[in-house]
């Protein structure tokens, strides 16, 4: 195994090892909260959908990349390639949409109680899941065309010049016009959602700073406690958006660069795929650290494992001493 493939394998397997348990932990904990408390806060509903989108990205893109890096070849046939490419693109699209919805939702929550904002405060949290489902159907509807000519990897000489080579699969756009139109459309869509989440985050920061100046000197009150909770949630959203903007900004920059090339090699595609996939792995860490319920559950699980380990060691010592 070459040095490049070794680093590639280590990188993608680390994403799998960290990403799958992290996202499954988020889904399982929120499912438990839903069952026990009979309800789930809109923010936690959005985070649940984000974890689901992250899992789709890991299963459909990171795992094939990792298996390819250790030498497994011809893993997928034409039908499986269509399914994997479709799943990855929808999962990636939902990741950016849900992150954008999360930032806008938090922006609405901390906005002043004017007539418009009050209306949005009432409607958006109640319909958060409906909004996500609408975006899901939108993404499901725009991607089938892009996978019609997806197929298992074939001889490079038989591919058209406008083909993306994606590990086990090729996505052939057939013509230059189709290649450019598809790439431009999806890039513009990504930048629109990134722009939306950036604007929402800037407004969140502005609102927090303004509130800080307004209530400076006030120490303890119900309003102060509420504000403190809002600050923590807002900082969590800003951190998540910052992570997204950095990783997906680099990803989109690489995508724009590949639009200027023909017959993009799989090695060239490894870089944006790794950057885009990193969000699916790193965002659960941010969510767990910044979400009070998840952080408490994680600490509880960690202490429980430590206690069981200590009890096991004591039993082993007792057995040996006998």
Beta-strand residue percentage: under 5%
Q: What's the CATH architecture?
A: Up-down Bundle
Largest sheet: 3 strands, antiparallel
Helix content: over 70%
Distance from first to last alpha carbon: 50 Å
- CATH fold call: Rhopdopsin 7-helix transmembrane proteins
Structural class: mainly alpha
Poorly predicted spans? 316-321
The averaged pLDDT comes out at: 80
Determine the number of helices (DSSP H or I, runs of at least 4 residues).
10
Strand order of the largest sheet: 1-3-2
Order of helices and strands: HHHHHHEEEHHHH
CATH level 1 class label: Mainly Alpha
Overall tally of domains: 1
Gyration radius from CA atoms, angstroms: 23 Å
> CATH H level: which superfamily?
Rhodopsin 7-helix transmembrane proteins
- The 3D shape can be described as globular
């Amino acid at each position: 195994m070459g040095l490049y493939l070794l680093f590639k394998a280590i990188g993608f397997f680390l994403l799998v090892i960290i990403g799958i348990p992290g996202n499954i932990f988020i889904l399982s904990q929120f499912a438990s909260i839903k069952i026990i408390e009979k309800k789930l806060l809109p923010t936690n509903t959005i985070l649940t959908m984000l974890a689901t989108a992250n899992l789709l990205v890991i299963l459909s893109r990171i795992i094939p990349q990792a298996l390819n890096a250790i030498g497994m070849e011809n893993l997928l046939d034409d039908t499986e390639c269509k399914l994997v490419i479709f799943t990855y693109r929808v999962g990636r699209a939902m990741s950016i949409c849900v992150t954008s919805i999360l930032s806008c939702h938090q922006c609405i929550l901390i906005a002043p109680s004017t007539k418009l904002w009050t209306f949005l405060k009432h409607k958006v949290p109640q319909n958060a899941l409906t909004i996500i489902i609408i975006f899901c159907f939108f993404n499901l509807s725009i991607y089938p065309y892009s996978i019609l000519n997806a197929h298992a990897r074939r001889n490079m000489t038989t591919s058209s010049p406008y083909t993306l080579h994606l590990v086990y699969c090729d996505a052939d756009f057939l013509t230059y016009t189709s290649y450019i139109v598809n790439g431009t459309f999806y890039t513009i869509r990504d930048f629109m959602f990134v722009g939306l989440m950036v604007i929402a985050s800037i407004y969140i920061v502005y609102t927090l700073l303004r509130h800080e100046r307004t209530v400076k000197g006030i120490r303890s009150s119900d309003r102060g406690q509420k504000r403190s909770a809002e600050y923590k949630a807002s900082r969590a959203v800003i951190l998540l958006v910052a992570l997204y903007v950095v990783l997906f900004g680099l990803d989109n920059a690489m995508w724009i660069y590949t639009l200027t090339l023909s017959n993009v090699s799989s090695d060239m595609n490894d870089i944006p795929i790794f950057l885009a996939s990193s969000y699916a792995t790193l965002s659960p860490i941010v969510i767990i650290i910044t979400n009070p319920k998840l952080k408490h559950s994680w600490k509880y699980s960690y202490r429980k494992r430590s206690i069981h380990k200590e009890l096991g060691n004591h039993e082993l010592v007792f057995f040996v001493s006998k």
